[in-house]
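Study this fold:
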Amino acid sequence: MTTATVPTRATGLRKAVIDGATVTKRNLIKVKRVPDLLVFSTISPIMFILLFAYVFGSAINTPGINYREYLIPGIFAQTVIFGATVTGAGLAEDMQKGIIDRFRSLPMSRSAVLIGRTTSDVLNNVLVIVIMSITGLIIGWRIHTGVADALAGFLLLLAFAYAMSWIMALVGLVVPSPEVVNNASFVVIFPLTFVANTFVPTGGFPSGLKAVADWNPVTAVTQAARDLFGNTSAKLPPDDTWSLHHPVVYTLIWVVGLVAIFAPLSARAYQRAASR
């Protein structure tokens, strides 16, 4: 009985991976056929970079470090989080158009749709980060650490984006349309990314707001990216908060926790939504 169960589970996992890769390819082809999706997802962060670097940068004090180098990791964090909303909007659109019902009629793994959707959006984020990195280099951003640390910084950003995608997947399966997903996501994500150290140090925040910002996972992933890219200064040390002194560990705790909670919830929501 045990011997028979192991191959069955292995086969099921293999099928989920293969079918998920197929759905991932389908979603990436969709982006290729509708390039406006990629264009507008990259224009926004580039505008944020230029706006903050050239308009607000001269008024923001970051002792010991050029504000543009301080800024770019925060823009990275904000962009990959907003990029996660594509997962929810894409699932809501597929539900609305009946594509999920078509998937249900095919002999494919039931988890393939969610795996393919979240994976394709992470791959989209890779391209967006590349474009943003080039923009950052043009305006003066530099990485002052080794290749391993730099890659770790990018991977941590993508891992956090992947975890956020599972939250957005759940939202996309329970709301009626892509427009609602975008509006609901904006209401939550916009303050989440601004009540953080993404654009300014939190030292000047009111005490209550500062406590929220210091424990905000967006603050942690931004601080982790800055540490790994070498965009820090001894004159601007992190506050005496555990989350900011161990930002990589704190970010990974959030990544594991979010996936562990929202992946099963998304799977159940998919089963209920697809069976309606």
